[in-house]
Amino acid sequence: MLHISPFRSAHRLISNSSNIVLLGSLLLPTFRSTKTLLQPRYRHSHYARLASSTTSRKPVPQQRATSTIPTKTSVQPPSIAKPSASPPIPSSLTLTTALNPPSTTLPAPLTLPTRSEYSSTLSYLYNLGRSYASFYKSGVKNTWTNYKLSRTLSSKPSSTLTRGEKLLLRRSSHDVRRLPVFAILFLIVGEWLPLFVPFVPRLVPLTCRIPKQENGMRQVQHERRRKALLEIGARDWPDSVFSQEGFGDKRRIVMLSQALGLFSAKLDALTGLPGTGWVLRRRLEGHVRFLEEDDEMLVRNLGKRGVEEAVEALGVEERVRAADDRGLDVLGKSEVDVAMVLREYLDRARMRPTKNKER
Q1: Which residue of 80, 101, 126, 347 sits 20 to 30 Å from the alpha carbon of 111, by its own alpha carbon?
Q2: CB-based burial of residue 295 (10 Å sphere; 0-12 exposed, 13-18 middle, 19+ buried)?
Q3: Residue 114: Cβ-neighbour burial (10 angstroms; 0-12, 13-18, 19+)
Q4: Burial of 331 (C-beta count, 10 Å sphere; 0-12/13-18/19+)
Q5: Of 60, 2, 248, 232, residue with least CA distance to 224
Q6: Are 326 and 287 in contact (CB under 8 A)?
Q7: Residue 181 region by backbone torsions, left for phi larger than 0, else alpha for psi between -120 and 50, else beta
Q8: pLDDT tens digits for 340-356?
Q9: Do 211 and 181 form a contact (C-beta atoms < 8 A)?
């Protein structure tokens, strides 16, 4: 006679219900964001019309005619224009807020249970799955929060945005595009998603990447960068990307794209297909423009503050991500070493000429 444990049945019921609830939270922001992207949305239009109609019906007070008596005019001494004071240097708190994006653009903290805390393997696996499910749910919530914040910034001129706000827009766009595929993947595998993530690491939003996944991606990229730079013999990396010579032929464009991690390592075998050189050149040009603008906001718009204070104002995780974007080697380095590598790069960026308009 087949005997089914009631605890095992309850575990299946709870696991399935948690998958359905989390799937709803995954898909809801995507449907809303798709609707918003396809159709312009005007908020509070009813209140705007009501305010305008109320203002138009408001009677204009008439001025009463009064007789003026001529009086003796007094001569005022000419006013001496005072020199305008120089703009105040932002405090360290303001500088930190301006240079760092919100913490919701980063993965939430992940706390996993240990095997020694539970007597049975089933209880351990059950709580391990719950921890991963809670982590992914927090990541999806952060993606939705970032999307709402990015909507409020999209109407502002780009020249008025801070570095943190521009990174918020960039990361939010990256995550929203990956949310539908990530939801389908979670529907199929559920709490076992971390076992399948290494096969499709770039399909996971930034807010849903576990530390083990990010470390694995960083190790793969470190080896790809080493091989690519060795093959093309690039010196003064990554300053050679900003040289006046341009990117060179297709082979050099592919190697530079690999060194900067602009496409997945699983697509290396497809770089020989026709048209890939043009696609990679466009992607490489866009990434270099992003780095040039980001360097400017870090070292050229700080007034009396130098590179030292700019690096100190960045968060620990933001320093690592800034180094990754620039193709700097930070694998296995301490926080002090990462700050030193980024500081040396920004010192050279200060001496770099203005942006290259043509390549």
Answers
A1: 101
A2: buried
A3: exposed
A4: middle
A5: 232
A6: no
A7: alpha
A8: 999 999 888 887 776 54
A9: no
Contact 285, 295 (CB under 8 A): no
Q: Please tell me the distance from the alpha carbon of residue 265 to that of residue 219, in angstroms, as a whole number.
A: 12
CB 102 within 8 A of CB 165: no
Split at pLDDT 50, 70, 90, the class of 218 is very high
pTM of the model: 0.71
DSSP 70: P
- 10 Å CB burial of residue 38 (0-12, 13-18, 19+) is exposed
Extract the tokens encoding 108.
Answer: 């939430």
Burial of 141 (0-12, 13-18, 19+ CB in 10 A): middle
Dihedral of alpha carbons 273, 276, 277, 278, sign: positive
Q: What is the DSSP string of 73-118?
A: --PPPPPPPPPPPPPPPPPHHHHHHHHS--GGGSPPP-----GGG-
d(CA 320, CA 202): 18
Judge whether 190 and 168 are in contact, CB under 8 Å: no
Tokens 């075998």 locate to: 269
Retrieve residue 338's tokens.
């990462």
Q: How far is CA 105 from CA 141, 154, 207, 264, in A?
A: 11, 17, 6, 22
Render pLDDT for 251-310 as a digit per residue (tens, 0 to 9).
889 999 999 999 988 888 888 888 888 999 999 999 999 999 999 888 865 544 578 888
